[in-house]
Amino acid sequence: MKRLVLWVLALAVLSGSALFAQNITGTWQGTLHTPGGRDLRTVIKVLVTETDALQAVLYSIDQGGQGISASATLKGSAVTINVPAIGGTYQGNLNRDATAITGTWTQGPQPLTLNLTRATPETAWTIPPPPPRLKPMPANANPSFEVATIKPSKPESRPGKYFRVNGRRFSTYHTTLDDIMTFTYGIQQKQIVGGPAWMRTDKYDLLAEPAGEGQPNDHQWKIMVQKLLADRFQLKFHKEKQELSVYAITVGKNGPKLTKSQGDPNGLPGLFFSGIQPAVLNVRNANMTDFAGVMQSAVLDRPVVDQTGLSGRYDFTLKWTSDESQFGGLGVKVPPPANNANGPAANNPGAPSANTSDAPPGLFTAIQKQLGLRLKPTKAPAEVLVIDHVETPSPN
């Protein structure tokens, strides 16, 4: 009889878990109230895969409505939605009727309340259709910006900085001229020699749209920014070779642990960095040169050289406990390549913090264990840009 009672209890527990898992599938929606006062309607669709795992798609319908893939887990009544492409996490609790989830969205230092309700066909918000896919800009085009505005950043505006491409719009936020040069020339700040101090201190917001037709690729965007710097900042420089202290990325002895990207091989890379402890770098549809670029501009204090010999594009997430002596602190943000979605907390860039007991290892160990790569300090000849002339930006 005791054994029979135990089996009944076990079945009751399993049935309860199965009920929760069954009831979380469907469409959930709620409004995220951002610190800037903007309300973002958020929709999360949860479904069960062929292997009985939960997965989700997140939509921020006031930011374009493009779907962003996510993972979902349910333990008892605890719901967790992870969105690696934008470094976001939703954590909440499912009520007994499985009609509401009370929780928070974390994509930076400050979690934001996000309460979700189960949508019905009558109450579900309309998700806007994705924008039409643009044809690529011709490869032989001589790209330039048709319109561009450069404004000093407001000191009281939210912290952080980013670079963003949204359709045919290019923008930067809280970026110095040094920041923009490191992005467009693929260099580290120490590779910029000379120039006035304001190049490293004065911050600007930039918004520009290209002339002509078609969607520019990564190289074409950078050419346009280079022309803009020469025109609006009167930037002139010459190149020299100097031996610098660098970090070299190589493949570890057991080989790389990287997932080949299924994104558009001609699309833009997605690079999302957060310096909130633990530091998180989400990489989507990016090659090793892209990875080295974001490491040298956003994380490390010296140039980073790709010596892996790896070709192709990859998706991966790197988490580590940052060492402030090596931490660069520049947040580089580019939308996911497939649809340029920015996600529900694009106005609050970052990633969730973790308990110190679960803290990941330091950067060098994390790269080796999580990616199968090595990061080693060395010296190597590197190109530097020596500033000959520069001015504060001309009026718009």
Notes on the protein architecture:
This protein is of the alpha+beta class and 396 residues long. Helices cover 18% and strands 37% of the residues. The chain has six helices and 21 strands. It has helices at residues 2-24, 177-185, 198-201, 218-232, 288-299, 363-371, and strands spanning 26-33, 39-48, 54-60, 68-75, 78-83, 88-94, 100-106, 112-113, 116-118, 145-152, 162-166, 169-175, 192-193, 204-210, 236-251, 259-260, 270-274, 279-286, 304-306, 314-320, 373-389. The strands form four sheets. Strands 1-2-3-4-5-6-7-9 form an eight-stranded antiparallel β-barrel. Helix 2 runs antiparallel to helix 4 (218-232). The longest helix has 23 residues, at 2-24. The N and C termini lie far apart (84 Å). Residues 1-21 and 324-356 have low confidence and may be disordered.
Keywords:
disordered N terminus; 8-stranded antiparallel β-barrel; alpha+beta; 396 residues
Tell me the Rg in angstroms. Answer: 23 Å
User: What's the β-strand tally?
Assistant: 21
> Uncertain segments of ≥5 residues (pLDDT<50)?
1-21, 324-356
Reported for the largest beta sheet, the result is:
8 strands, antiparallel, barrel
Work out the oligomeric state of the chains in this entry: single chain
* Intertermini distance: 84 Å
Tally of individual helices:
6
Tell me briefly what this model is.
This protein is α+β, with helices and mostly antiparallel strands. The chain is 18% helix and 37% strand.
